[in-house]
Specification:
By secondary structure, the chain is mainly beta. Helix content is 6%, strand content 46%. The chain contains two helices and 25 strands. It has a seven-stranded antiparallel beta sheet with strand order 5-6-7-8-9-10-11. Strands 1-24-23-22-21 form a five-stranded antiparallel beta sheet, with no helix packed on it. The protein has a five-stranded mixed beta sheet with strand order 16-20-19-18-17, with no helix packed on it.
Length: 395
């Protein structure tokens, strides 16, 4: 009896120590160096002790532990190019009810902040190089911001607290010239998308009754240039929008209540990380992470990475490839986050958001790499995951 009690006590102690240790990457499958594209894995684990930016080798070795090097909650840690030099990008701040308030930062090789964009949300921070009319390259940042604004929501059943008004979230994105912080384009969801397109009704922490609980009817989670405009993803309308860069108007919608295209034999729901793969003639190829679920509605299926083709002439969209989780038999979709990255040789690297794992598939859909981070059953998550070279952090 004494021995049994001692063993149980030791097990509990070891578990407690493990739970207070930095996250590790447990490699589940690593087929071969020939099939797996070389690189390092960039993660920003949250929901566990020692959260922060990390870089792991493919064998699971931690090559950079950035816990505590930035303040607040950290998201979207990744390599980036700024002023023609290899840098790191990330977001730091506070989060509540699925969005954040903080700043996007660029970090040098010593992990010092060399550029900051305050007043931003974590859902998007990408630096792209754009050629101006004089043939000079500029660093343009795409960032998001969630603004709470007063709005009469009685048509949606919202009765505000006594003496208060009802509130809704107005999702913004901006394109910012980093050389002078000039805003070269800004867009607002309330200016262009009616509240009626929202598929997530006022409820729980987004019930619309107070400013802190503003109704997040849109939930913007990805922005990129495409087709001469901007491709944006709205999680709470389950819609991908092409936005005009001239006046912000909606050129077309894919998915959701008012889709301009017929989805042939597939669907997506509550998606993340929508990106352009290619554009040839009337055919636009996109990648996305299909959550098929968010925390406010019932699951529509299991999460997956998807590549789809949109035919602008026939007004149809079809599924080209789908990348499933190796733990698919568990039946738990990823309720938050997720990313899809196309690599060399046509391989696809997928971050599974709140399902704390990463995978890599070959162009023909064969799983060649899989790894998990965080203890089994923990609340570990990484909003996005990236695979890229890593040249190290200088001390």
């Amino acid at each position: 009896m004494l021995l049994t009690t001692l063993i149980v006590a030791v097990c509990h102690c070891l578990t407690a120590v493990a739970q207070q240790s930095p996250p590790t990457l447990e490699v589940i499958q690593n087929n071969s160096t020939n099939a797996v594209v070389p690189g390092y894995i960039y993660l920003t684990p949250n929901g566990i002790p020692f959260s922060g930016p990390y870089v792991f080798a493919l064998n699971g070795t931690t090559v950079f532990n950035g816990a505590g090097k930035l303040s607040g909650t950290i998201h979207d840690f990744q390599p980036c190019v700024y002023q023609k030099k290899q840098r790191f990008c990330a977001w730091q701040g506070t989060t509540a009810y699925g969005y954040g308030s903080g700043q996007a930062v660029v970090l040098d090789e010593q992990f010092r902040v060399i550029k900051a964009l305050p007043g931003t949300d974590y859902h998007e921070f990408k630096i792209v190089q754009a050629l101006d009319s004089k043939g000079q390259y500029s660093d343009i940042a795409h960032v998001t911001e969630y603004k709470q604004v007063r709005r009469d929501l009685s048509a949606f059943g919202v009765v505000p607290d006594a003496g208060n008004t009802s509130w809704v979230v107005d999702c913004h994105f901006r394109a910012v010239d980093l050389s002078n912080n000039a805003i070269i384009f800004e867009w607002s969801s309330l200016d262009h998308v009616p509240l009626s397109e929202g598929l997530v009704r006022p409820t729980g922490g987004i019930n619309g009754r107070t400013k802190a609980n503003a109704w997040d009817y849109f939930h913007l989670d990805a922005v990129s240039r495409a087709e001469g405009g901007y491709l944006i993803s709205s999680r709470h309308t389950s819609t991908i929008y092409l936005v005009s860069s001239k006046d912000g108007s909606i050129v077309w919608r894919l998915g959701g209540k008012k889709s301009d295209f017929k989805l042939k034999g597939f669907s997506f729901d509550s998606q993340h990380d929508v990106r352009t793969v290619s554009s040839k003639g009337n055919v636009l190829t996109l990648s996305l992470f299909d959550n098929a679920y968010n925390t406010f509605v019932q699951p529509k299926g299991l999460s997956s990475g998807k590549i789809i083709k949109v035919n602008k002439a026939t007004k149809t969209a079809r599924l080209v490839q789908q990348f499933d989780s190796p733990s698919r038999e568990v039946g738990n979709p990823s309720g938050d986050g997720g990313s899809v990255q196309l690599l060399a040789k046509g391989n696809v690297f997928t971050g599974w958001g709140s399902d704390a794992q990463v995978t890599e598939h070959t162009a023909d859909g064969r799983l060649v790499y899989a790894a998990r981070f965080g203890l089994s059953g923990s609340s570990a998550s990484s909003y996005r995951a990236f695979k890229a070279p890593f040249t190290g952090i200088k001390k």
